[in-house]
User: What shape does this take?
Amino acid sequence: MANFFTSLFSSSSVEESTDGISKSDRKKFDILKYDGVRAQKIGKLPYAIKCFTEALAIQEDLETMSYLVGAYTMIHEPEKALDVLDKMVVINPEQLNTLFTRVSVLFLLNREEDAIEECNRIIGYDSSNHLAFYLMSRARRNKGDFDSALVDITKAIELKDDFSDAYLLRSEIYLKKENGTSALEDVEAVIAREGEEENAYLLRGIVHVFLKNVPAAEEDFNKVLELNPFNEEASFRLSELLITSERLDEALVVLDDLVELSPSLAKAYAERSKLKTLTGDTTGAEEDSLKAQELQSEVSEQTGQADFSNMYKGGIF
Assistant: This one.
């Protein structure tokens, strides 16, 4: 990376740094870069992108490029983020942080094969990198290649035996392979080590549902909501379990609580509409259905059709 804070005095009328950037351009670059950083921090992303882009037109700088990648992902422009990352890789092909960020963006674009290729590139530079094996396992899991995903995640655990997210992912893969016993062993290892880990209790509840242990599943989903009342997945799982057990009134309480806590969550209204239909409340069901459609339309207008929910998530979902 260019050293922006070292310059040489020359006999010309314009001072230049060792990389040929004039003193005035270097000052302009710094102003643009840090104006962009400030704009990004307060959410003025179009202006931040403009600043970063103009700064990079003056001089290539990996740090500024990384800020630009972050801004593009925040406005749901992963293709543009990937273009910048590709340039960063050309400048410094062995910078692992850049390669890992590239994997995350490839996940956003549902380009699992490319993500696997990138993970293999990281492993080529660092064969003991547990995170690369973990992410490669996620990519293979997403593709439905559960056998290869299991090999990769087991390697990640061998490299880092206290890697809780890896145990959760392996548990989820075991569950996909309908091996509930092994899935339960892995998730309970995390709970024994971590204690109050909501994702672990959530997954254990899902495993208990698979094993048809309804009381244990209900206890785990309630534990998740005790730890985090805003955990939407736990609310949906618990209400579904109660409906299956023909405890419709209790399920309705769970969904009422979720709507109260997350009044802009379209799925909560949609699920409550279905439940109200089962209870014979046709008026309430129709009201909830219309509200769900209204909220979903608002979300579609704001974010378009792309799904950016999995960029930085670890664990099982």
Summary: Residues 1-18, 304-317 have pLDDT under 50 and may be disordered. DSSP finds 16 helices and two strands in the chain. Residues 45 and 71 are 6 Å apart (CA to CA).
